[in-house]
Specification:
The structure is a single chain. The protein is of the alpha+beta class. It has one domain. It is 40% helix and 35% strand. The chain has two helices and four strands; from the N terminus they run ββββαα. Helix 1 runs antiparallel to helix 2. The protein is globular, with a radius of gyration of 14 Å.
Length: 84
Amino acid sequence: MKIAVGNNTFIESDTRQFIVKKYTGAIDKEGNEISTSLGYYNTLGRVIKGLVKTKLLESEATTIKELLETLNRIEKEIDDLIKV
């Protein structure tokens, strides 16, 4: 499984867990895309919470109002992904 969730970020899985990865766009010597694992989760609900947390931590907000606006934007992006 490999599901795009925006900006080179994907939800992937192995036989035991979900993995959120961010791809750099670079290719290694074997021809594989290079990625960074952002988190490992055992439920889809935790994946969603992890994505929200990651995006909030990347925020450049300087006030609570800006942070809440960022959270609302993130929630809308997730809703839009679900509706597709």
